Amino acid sequence: MKRLNYEVLNDSGYKGYVLGKGEAPVKVLQFGEGNFLRAFVDYWFDMSNEKVGWNGKVALVQPIAQGLTKIINEQEGLYTLYLRGAENGEKVNRKRVISVVDGCYNPYDQADWDRIKEIAQSDDLEYVASNTTEAGIVYDPGSSFDQLPPVSFPAKLTVLLYEKFKAGKKGLVILSCELIDANGKELEKCCLRHADDWKLGSDFKKWLSNECLFCSTLVDRIVPGRIRDPEEVKELNEQNGYEDSLLDVGEVFGVWYIEGPEALSGKLPFQKAGLNVYVVPEVAPYKKRKVRILNGAHTGFVLGAYLAGQNIVRDCMHDETIHAFMNKMLYDEIIPILPLDKDDCRKFAEAVTDRFANPFVDHQLMSISLNSTSKWKARDLPSLIEYTEKFGKLPQALTMGFAAYIAFYSTDLQRREEDGLVAKRPAGNEYKIQDDGWALDFYWDHRNADDKTLVHDVLSDKQMWDQDLTKIPELEMTVLKDLELIRTEGAEKAYESVL
What we know:
Blueprint (H helix, E strand, L loop, with lengths): L5 H7 L13 E6 L3 H5 L1 H12 L4 E5 L7 H6 L4 E9 L2 E9 L2 E5 L4 H12 L5 E4 L22 H14 L6 E4 L6 H15 L4 H10 L1 E8 L9 H11 L7 E4 L3 E5 L2 H6 L9 E4 L3 H24 L5 H5 L2 H15 L7 H15 L8 H4 L3 H20 L4 H15 L2 E5 L2 E5 L5 E4 L3 H9 L5 H9 L2 H4 L9 H15 L1 H6 L3
Parallel strand pairs: 1-2, 1-6, 2-5, 3-9, 6-7, 7-8, 10-11
Antiparallel strand pairs: 3-4, 8-10, 12-13, 13-14
Helix pairs in contact: 5-6, 6-7, 7-8, 11-13, 11-16, 11-17, 16-17, 17-21, 19-21
């Protein structure tokens, strides 16, 4: 079977939208060629080409020495994207061939690095997009201007922006997708430090700060990426009429929040195309919404759901009690305290149910359980505290979820292993709790403590929570009561008790 390229795609009889090779200028330089960016950023720009004739291509830059440059160029930038999941309870499996990619370049090759500099100097280039992992946006004093290429991503970007500046061209919009707070601002700080180190001059620094727009962004789409079943890959290739070494899979839900001035919304093509991409004054509230609703729901219900006998998230959405418990937590306790439009929050929560019920993803509860102490502190505890302060009473579901966290970490403990704490759930099978060593040691040291002592010591531990939670009125007493209910009646009955 022939490898995907423009000629092979044409021969396959594909009827979807395709922007031909060389038919549009490169408007985006993208650092990162992996599954996420191809299922997210490149998808939105590809849709803009189809919906509103944006007429742009994306040039990919391989951020590290090993990558996909050769394969991407062999396929002339084409790849097949499947968006899978559920919408309004209905199963969705959409196929699209992405044709927005112009090609890929390896900056560790001199010719490619020179070509990347040429693209940077072009009048057509408007945007830089990146996802170089959380470790990508770091200041690296070992990076120098004359390296082939400079080691870090911010250093590479500084060189390219300097090339743009020297050519007398206007600045770029930088869309940072790395999963760190204020990603755009942190990237700008790194570039300015390199400009100082390399003595690139005050005029360049002024141009970089005033003419370039470093946007912090919030990305939200789960991208499993590769299909691991070789039989399914073979079947899809046969259906498509070509072999695709870059086949990509993401969930059907996706949203992108970009922090920037209102004028940027008119410049970017997404609003005109009616896509789920928004320019907002601040990303922070939307990150808070995602952490509190999506991540908070996960951490808030899965530990008790596992003790109740469930194993994957999708099945929890089909369990009447667990699903209702999650909804009470979201709609009655978390959404009322969020500083965003309540209708938007409710719509986001409705989408969460579809995402959790994704028929294509077996999301294991045990994988979500990793590092639940720090997750509870970041995702759920702030909601519990803010709800209590706002309404003068404890949130029932969140408080029960806190008790379920303690139960998960302390049910029938068997042994302490190097990488975890082995417990036994009511169904009889062993499971491994994985967390920071100090947290595991805490629960192992309390394995013989009665529940009253355990609850007091957990709530008062400042290493866990940065505060003494026993000072929250009635929390200690309520968590103890909830924990005893989980122990005696089981987690599902305990969840049902708050409905």
